[in-house]
Amino acid sequence: MENCIEISGLTKKYGTHLAVDDLTLSIAKGEIFGLLGPNGAGKSTTILMLLGLTEVDSGHVKVCDIDATRHPLEVKRKVGYLPEDVGFYNDYSGLQNLVYIAQLNNIPIKQAKKDALLILEEVGLLDAKDKKVGTYSRGMRQRLGLAEVLIKEPEVIILDEPTLGLDPEGVRKFLQLIVELSRKKGITVLFSSHHLHQIQQVCDRVGIFVKGKLLAEGKISDLAEQLFSKNTFTTELGITDSKEITDTTLNEITEKISTIKNVAKVTSHGSHFSIESKSDVSGELSKLIVGLGYGISYLTKKEYGLDDIYHKHFQE
Ligand SMILES: Nc1ncnc2c1ncn2[C@@H]1O[C@H](COP(=O)(O)OP(=O)(O)OP(=O)(O)O)[C@@H](O)[C@H]1O
Fold this sequence. Notes:
Belongs to the ABC transporter superfamily. GO terms for molecular function: ATP binding; ATP hydrolysis activity. By secondary structure, this protein is of the alpha/beta class. The chain is built from eleven helices and 14 strands.
């Protein structure tokens, strides 16, 4: 698959502080890639280098086959960048702001107006097009920011913590919009955030970035497999009985569960059990519990998500 972003051996120091440490990463055309990491991990610094806005100490960055360090202006034409907070002319309407940006990007006025209306519709701001931006909500401002990015018809969009300050519904709609636009227009997206749930919702692939280093990278399912390969399955089980369940019976049940094939670890808290295993043991488990004369209040199979992956990395 054709790569749209290629980073190799990228390093950036601020004084003696290593902000980005030998980063190598490729992002395919049309892919939505999530750069996940806590504050100070080096995400913004990496983005600045991708945009050719800060000098690189060593390594290479290519965006759409253009060397970002040598040709930052050419990269700027291909890339739309949405920072945490976008500045607008608050006394201008949404439409006026957008047309102005289009003209700055050398789009003739007639075309700019036509494009602006289409894009305002795409980002759901057509009804608010004539309102002054100063009266826009935070969610509307972010969508207008996205419209400003889109009017340049970019091949790549870079989003740096784009959902800060949005309410949950605003976040949901904004993320949905990103996915729709990327799929519809084949735009490559680099989504930088410390919100793992947001990254998990939208990204095809993710890189976990901590202290300037890429700790892991891949599809969420592959990362889970790499990290939890020994005991990939976790089953949560709750049991009931007409009588009170004593510690002795709980210990006996724990022992019996441990004898099921492929079960590696059983922990219990009261009548709740957590079972780690190499294969799906839910069928055997329910047979065993019912056979012992207990009821099952719940039996859920847990799939590993990005938060498990993230926390496991921090544990280690
Ligand atoms: N201009 C600068 N001068 C000196 N140090 C800097 C500069 N910019 C960033 N840093 C330091 O480099 C490290 C990485 O910062 P960066 O902003 O890239 O992280 P981040 O992952 O984007 O975090 P955040 O989400 O907080 O912006 C941090 O320790 C930061 O303090």
